[in-house]
Amino acid sequence: MHALSDEARRERARERFDRALALLVDHDMEAFAHLWAPEGTMDFPFAVDGQPERLEGRQAVVDYLAHYTDMVDVRAVEVHAVHPMLDPDTIVVEFEASGVVVATGLDYAMPYIAVITVGDEGITSYRDYWTLARIASSLPAAAVSA
């Protein structure tokens, strides 16, 4: 087996990210979660009380996202920037998801910065920088206080 060139590894990371966004808009969260490597992680550095700070393993990502579309109806994603890193397996992306909060019918507009590392088996690390405070007024009171 031949090692991938740095350019091919960067392309693989970008393609995996693009696929993830397409699945998000298609509301296929199971396929989205299966983009992770079996031992991949998902971190939420700005997690609030009651929310996980880290998911370990693909199955944890599958479980976490199982009811995502019951809460948020993402209708569009706009990518603002994709920054390649020195590590060709890693990209930093700036994007915004928009749609509707299902429980309230109010607008959902969330800016994200994600640091994504992709290996041979899929996403090995996804650090998701977003904050619930950005959309708190659109959520039901129970979700904000959870």
Automatic annotation (TrEMBL):
The keyword Isomerase applies. Residues 19-125 form the SnoaL-like domain. It comes from Umezawaea tangerina. The keyword Isomerase applies. Keywords: Isomerase. It holds the Pfam family SnoaL_2. The lineage of its organism: Bacteria, Bacillati, Actinomycetota, Actinomycetes, Pseudonocardiales. One of its GO terms (molecular function) is isomerase activity. This is Ketosteroid isomerase-like protein.
